[in-house]
Amino acid sequence: MPESVVTPPSRTSTPPADGARDASPFVAVRSPTAFTDSPVSRAFEQPLLLGLFLPIQAGGWSASTLPRTTDWNFEYNLELVQKAESFGFDLVFALSQWLPKGGYGGVFNGEALDSFMSLAAMTARTERIILVATSHVLYGPWHPLHFAKFTATLDHISKGRWGINVVTGHRAIEHEMFGWHRIDHDRRYQLAAEFLDAVQQLWSQPDNFSFAPELSSWKLDKAFVTPKPRYGRPLLVNATGSDAGIDFAARYSDVVFITSPAGSEIEAALAALPAHTARVKAAAQAHGRKIRTLLNPMVICRETPAEARAYHDAIVAHGDEGSFHRFDSDAHAWRGGAEQRNSAAARAVGGNISIVGSPQQIADYIVRLHRAGVDGVQLSFFDFKPDLEFFGERVLPLLREAGLRY
């Protein structure tokens, strides 16, 4: 399917399909999927993309004090990445957060690595897996010229295994840390589009490139970047569920990180996801593009259903009320009604959805998610090292038997 060209300077225009031309100075930008030998193309040959969502922040993804090995430090996360690579995982993600002292409180105390820098370091310590760093492209220090140069360099070092999860930021506390008021939701995507337009041109233009955006304060004057990315450009991802975000993903991204519109309960999620994934993919098709959907399940797996449920219940029983006191409205959820307690339990476990059971049950859930239009799973675990090991040894072979992994 043809890949889109970046949007011309007018924010109201629609990007033409790959190979099309208009009067703008923009050139066509090829996706890494257009190169059959790229790491991205090889990963996309799998029926189901398999990823790991790294815990580079204190508390990982679970607001629980149940003892575990999960740690935010670099060596721990590097070991996770190398183990995931040995199991044949396609990619890893890491978040980016900007929080004041104390973070969200409790186990989410704010200790965290930087996503971009930590995954950049891992490019030299891995061989096959794709590394996707989350970047707030509107915050403080980024200029498109810096961003294009740094990411093209990492693409070069990694031999095409570099990816970027482009985010605009939504928490007021983060915008304020950089000295701003929070930018209106849809305007954030307009600014991000101008930023990414410029970056893609710097990756692609064979000559110096000048660009004066309509909305942003930065400019480019006879700018040029080397090295050029090995396969057109790095993998582009964004996480969204809004109309503006889905439109942005449809025009720019190779993968969109979705959430369940129905919350974390698996059966409700499975009922809601087919329509949601179809909507996202139809938006990309309207721009002559193909996009893949990625979902974040929290996997709680043991040999038997009873053991898995006991593990789940222990995580919930150690739910950390202190983790809800800084920026969330459900600070007293543990003392609230049934609905509040269910919300608190879901936060204690973590993940956009949670899947609990034996290896066969977990594999069956993932098969059902795939049938619901989910093209990949970005897995989280409560106790990452042993739980990832168990998944690789006991669940992954079942996914191969089911035809979801080669």
Automatic annotation (TrEMBL):
Compositional bias annotation for Low complexity: 1-16
A matching Pfam family: Bac_luciferase
Keywords assigned by UniProt, alphabetized: Flavoprotein, FMN, Monooxygenase, Oxidoreductase
Superkingdom of origin: Bacteria
Region of interest called Disordered, as start-end residue ranges on this chain: 1-23
Classification via CDD domains: Alkanesulfonate_monoxygenase
KW Oxidoreductase (keyword) present: yes
Chain ranges of the Luciferase-like domain: 51-375
Signal sequence residues: none
Record-linked InterPro entries: Luciferase-like_dom, Luciferase-like_sf, SsuD_RutA_monooxygenase
Keyword Oxidoreductase: yes
Protein name as annotated: LLM class flavin-dependent oxidoreductase
Organism in which the protein naturally occurs: Paraburkholderia strydomiana
Lineage: Bacteria, Pseudomonadati, Pseudomonadota, Betaproteobacteria, Burkholderiales
